[in-house]
Design a protein that fits this description.
alpha/beta, 7 strands, 9% strand
Length: 334
């Protein structure tokens, strides 16, 4: 599987489908060929419209084969299924078919299991989660290997190495399909070095969402960790290379061996984020940004790097306070 190193993140949450379609259409015109979305983003139909319009307008030069479409689904196994593989398969296949219908495509290049925790059981220590992961993964693997060719590759999102290793442990066969990708939140303040290193060593590509950290999502105001694009160190490196702080962070991400799916509804920002291959960070630049993940920062939302306060207590959801999104820390999930 060949996956573009830079794609367009699909987490644009708007009830205005025309707005969503316009944002993705401009991203495709900019040059993005990887489009990311998920079943719970509720925007797949608008994205499908953008893709259909784009392909129709450029059918002499660009076809569906030139695009890489990713969607994410939830764990599709219920306690009533017991270990009924056919029930899990049918439920997962129906979910895939719905993604295909909404996105107006005959196949998906990549399908990810969207988190290691099933929403049926809210407690992170429930043994149900491991059973749901394994049975859904078996069903997804079966779809991958079927003659329908509705799915070209499968992977996971927000899984820890332990969760992925359980697939091998629970398997009664040496031929279990290995995840092609692990999509995780990754930015200078949340580097997850152990997960990234382990995945790369195992031949599993790592893809970063939330690459700008902090309040990176446009139009969303909420408390959260500071925005690394505002740090003076990032600005100094950006000035040195004559590019923007956002471009520096994306280039750092790529040089760490991690793909990225930045998101923006602004056409100028889309173009800027896509243009990160014309320069390279040197060892000093990389080391300076790498060190950001080991330091304490002021979590009042400012970029006062010199203040060394203790991070706030971990929130009740068991997440990392450096995470913008507030997801449960994968290591907290059984």
């Amino acid at each position: 599987m060949e996956m573009p190193a830079i794609g367009f993140g699909g987490g644009i949450f708007s009830r205005n489908s025309t707005f969503v379609t316009s944002a993705f259409a401009s991203a495709l015109r900019t040059g993005y060929r990887l489009i990311d979305t998920a079943s719970n983003y509720r925007n797949e139909e608008a994205i499908g419209n953008a893709i259909g319009q784009f392909v129709q307008e450029n059918n002499q030069e660009i076809s569906r084969a030139n695009l890489f479409i990713t969607s994410k689904i939830e764990l599709r196994w219920l306690p009533g299924d017991d270990d009924n593989d056919d029930a899990s398969y049918s439920r997962t296949l129906a979910t895939i078919d719905e993604r295909l219908r909404l996105l107006n495509t005959s196949y998906l290049d990549l399908v990810l299991l969207h988190g290691p925790k099933s929403e049926v059981h809210s407690h992170p220590r429930s043994e149900y989660h491991a059973r749901a992961r394994w049975n859904t993964w078996k069903a997804l693997s079966r779809i991958l290997l079927s003659e329908t060719k509705k799915v070209r590759a499968i992977g996971v999102s927000n899984w820890s190495p332990r969760h992925i290793q359980q697939l091998w442990h629970d398997s009664d066969s040496q031929s279990i399909t290995k995840p092609a990708v692990n999509q995780i939140e990754f930015h200078p303040l949340l580097q997850r070095n152990e997960t990234v290193t382990w995945c790369i060593d195992q031949g599993i590509a790592v893809q970063a969402y939330g690459a700008f950290g902090g309040r990176q999502a446009e139009g969303r105001k909420r408390e959260g960790p500071p925005d690394p694009t505002s740090f003076s160190g990032i600005h100094e490196i950006a000035t040195k290379h004559g590019v923007s702080p956002h471009q520096i962070i994306l280039r750092w991400t790529l040089q760490r061996g991690v793909a990225a799916i930045p998101m923006s509804t602004n056409e100028d920002h889309q173009a800027e984020n896509f243009d990160v291959l014309g320069f390279e960070l040197d060892t000093g630049d990389m080391g300076r940004i790498n060190a950001m993940g080991d330091e304490e920062f002021d979590f009042d939302g400012s970029a006062a790097e010199t203040k060394k306060r203790k991070r706030p207590p971990v929130a009740k959801w068991g997440g990392d306070p450096r995470s913008y999104y507030g997801f449960t820390d994968p290591e907290k999930i059984l």
